[in-house]
Amino acid sequence: MTTHVFRGGVVVDADGAREATVVVEDDRITQVAPVDSDTGHGDDLDPDGAEVHHLDGAYLAPGLVDAHVHLMMDAGPDPAANVDASTASLTYQATRNLRDAVEAGVTTVRDLGAPDGIALDARAAVADGTVAGPRVHACGQNVVMTGGHGHWFGREADGPAEVRKAVREQLKAGADVVKCMATGGVLTEGAQTGAPELTPDELAALVDAASAKNVPTAAHAHGTRGIENAVAAGITSVEHGTYMDENAAQMMADAGTYWVPTASAVHGIVDNADAGTIPEWAVEKGEHALEAFAEAFEHALAAGVTVAMGTDAGTPYNRFADIPQELELLVEYGLTPAEALTAATRNAADLLGVDAGRIAPGLAADLVVLSADPTDDVTAWRHPDRVVARGRFVSNMA
Ligand SMILES: [Zn+2]
How far is the C-alpha of 361 from the C-alpha of 317, rounded, in Å? Predict the structure, then answer.
């Protein structure tokens, strides 16, 4: 057994900040002992044979959880450029993305769409130590109407019966989550932004089929009607939610539907308009989406929608190494740095159903050492001093 003790630091998670000594045995947190600054009690834990790490007042936070990534995408200007890429080259890209993510302090990712079982296999490759990376949850292929958004890497299905079969195929392959497209994309040329795709009947069949394995469901939804359709069907999380209005936000709050905003995705496009490699029509649609997005945050925060952090990493100029910058965007849109931390740790972990996201005994030893307090300075996440994923220091992972 390998035991690590983290001493002299400030533990900071969704439960707040406190001076504490943290003991890790193998891949688990086993003790979090508050330090009494008068007596020094709690600072004296010294398990046999433990490797002791003196944090000297640094901050110990949970590793980040990104609820929406695409491991096989390269963050190039046009994701469709990969349509003809071989499974092997997409897999190499995934390997690189996994390493970039975990080095940035991301210890869990959820892949919401990849062909050929790439992300499901990545889950096993990380778990057995073949490649370095965050723990992976994966949907397999996303369920999409014939010709719908992202169909090139999705499982096309039409009508409730076919959707049910498509879901069962993903569950059979070992999916941790079922992902579907409830609307079109913002960036599909010629398409109406965020028009409904899967119908209410199809969405209801999808949620029902997923319930057999008790896995969460995730719906890509930009347009208002598509969001409402997804929530009414009982979807666990709305991804993007760009055109969420007051009514849609209230529906989500009432149903307990999570919102995964993926601000990095639309910012990746709009903020890189000058790079000249993204088509002009796409930038224009992105700019329109951005205006609606600011309003979506106002509605969501007013209604009390639960936000879980996700980036859509892999889409244009949206790199795995930059995942922590999503927290800065969440703060720009009105969350406090502490709320951004909660969205990116506890809430995202709860959405995925993983035993992580806080620093407490029994949870996975997914830890990030930061030199500044992330509930005070959201940019503290940019340069983690150290990352521990399931008890292993990231530099020694592979
Ligand atoms: Zn996506």
Answer: 38
What residue has token string 């046009």? 78
Cα separations (Å) of 342 from 27, 73, 201, 331, 357?
A: 22, 27, 34, 12, 8
User: How high is the pLDDT of residue 28?
Assistant: 97
Domain spanning 64-352: which CATH class is it, in words? alpha beta
Distance 40 CA to ligand 1 centre (A): 48
- Would you say 333 and 263 are in contact if contact means Cβ atoms under 8 Å apart? yes
Distance (Å) from CA 131 to ligand 1 centroid: 23
In the chain, domain spans: 3-62+358-396, 64-352
Count of Cβ atoms closer than 10 Å to residue 96 Cβ: 15
Question: How far is Cα 257 from Cα 4, in angstroms, rounded to an integer?
Answer: 38
Q: Which amino acid is at 134?
A: P
- Provide the β-strand partners of residue 145: none
Residue 184 CA to ligand 1 centre (angstroms): 12
Q: 197 CA to middle of ligand 1, Å?
A: 15
Instruction: Give the 3-state secondary structure percentages of the chain, helix then strand then coil, rounded to 5.
Output: 40, 20, 40
Contacts of 230 (CB under 8 A, 6+ apart): 182, 203, 219, 221, 238, 257
| Residue 393 in tokens | 């220091």
* CA–CA distance, 47 with 273 (Å, rounded to integer): 55
Q: Cα of 239 to ligand 1 centre, how many Å? A: 8
Tell me, which fold does domain 3-62+358-396 have in CATH?
Urease, subunit C; domain 1 (2.30.40)
List, for residues 105-138, the tens digit of each pLDDT value. Answer: 999 999 999 999 999 999 999 999 999 999 999 9
pTM above 0.85, yes or no: yes
What is the Å distance from ligand 1's center to 112 Cα?
6
Neighbouring C-beta atoms of residue 372, cutoff 10 Å: 15
